[in-house]
Design goal:
By secondary structure, this protein is α/β, with parallel strands linked by helices. The chain has two domains: 7-239, Phosphoenolpyruvate-binding domains (TIM Barrel, Alpha-Beta Barrel); 241-271. It has helices at 7-12, 30-37, 50-53, 65-78, 96-110, 122-134, 149-152, 162-178, 190-199, 220-223, 241-270, and strands spanning 22-26, 43-46, 83-87, 114-116, 138-143, 182-186, 204-207, 215-219. Strands 1-2-3-4-5-6-7-8 form an eight-stranded parallel barrel, surrounded by five helices. Helix 5 (96-110) crosses helix 6 (122-134). The longest helix has 30 residues, at 241-270. The protein is globular, with a radius of gyration of 21 Å.
């Protein structure tokens, strides 16, 4: 049985110190969590992307704290020996009071090892400080922050211009100082992502941000191509389980139809 990681060990996991890159996958359900728990995977993220992937919402903005609690709890029940991080959904940390209430609720009920929240505005940094002081480990998230997609104006690579690059560097350092044990860099320009990774003493986990971060995270459903749509361009699926499953279902239905026809013919013959 593998031994679950701790935030102390994760904090030290910098590639330039000789550690291997951290491997993280996003998972939403008990059965897949059981499977991942029997692999060498380091971390599981229960992302609010479940709104798009599982619940069919247009954006992650629609996901509630109750839904996150249900799914995070299911994953943790399956992944008893893997470090699990749960997302705080949109609107649940808009103020310090709501952040403390919702974070404590999700952390207690789901039994995950840490929570993740998006952004690095001053009020969010204060929230991170209070949560870590309360005893809740926090993973940061900058670059493309899906909960702010409407305000950002869409999905695109961040940090291409010097002004936004400097802002992201400052945000990364501020998150580290606030107490984050790791930071997700989503769709951050690759050279900038490498620079931020070298500057921080805590690990960076990239998604669509190049290959030089201290770890990578992908959505399991994208990696296995479990859905009807093509995964994001930065994810190269290792198979197409959607088509494979559909082929098996089509085969099953065809066999059942043939069996039914055979039974009907036999019944006619007997009469």
């Amino acid at each position: 049985m593998k031994k679950i990681l701790t935030t102390k060990k994760i904090r030290k996991n910098k590639v330039h110190r000789g550690f291997r890159p951290l491997q993280m996958l996003t998972c939403y359900d008990y059965q897949n969590a059981c499977m991942l728990d029997n692999t060498e995977l380091d971390l599981i993220l229960v992302g609010d992307s479940l709104g798009n992937v599982i619940l069919g919402y247009d954006t992650t903005v629609e996901v509630s704290i109750e839904e996150m609690t249900v799914f995070a709890s299911a994953v943790k029940r399956g992944a008893k020996n893997t470090f699990v991080v749960g997302d705080l959904p949109f609107g649940t940390y808009s103020t310090l009071e709501t952040a403390l209430k919702n974070s404590i609720h999700l952390f207690q009920k789901s039994k995950v090892e840490a929570l993740k929240l998006e952004g690095a505005h001053p009020y969010q940094l204060e929230i991170i400080q209070r949560l870590t002081q309360t005893g809740i480990p926090i993973m940061g998230h900058i670059g493309l922050t899906p909960q702010s997609v409407h305000q950002l104006g869409g999905y695109y690579v961040h940090g291409k211009k010097s002004k936004t690059a400097e802002a992201l560097k400052k945000q990364a350092h501020a998150l580290e100082e606030a107490g984050c044990f790791a930071i997700v860099l989503e769709c951050v320009e690759a050279n900038l992502s490498e620079e931020i990774t070298k500057d921080l003493s805590i690990p960076t986990i990239g998604i669509g941000s190049g290959t030089t971060t201290d770890g990578q995270v992908l959505v399991l459903n994208d990696l296995l191509h479990l859905g009807p749509l093509a995964p994001p361009s930065f994810c190269k699926p290792i198979t197409n389980l959607y088509q494979i499953k559909k082929n098996y279902i089509d085969q099953y239905l065809s066999e059942q139809k043939s069996l039914s026809s055979s039974l009907n013919e036999a019944e006619v013959t007997l009469h």
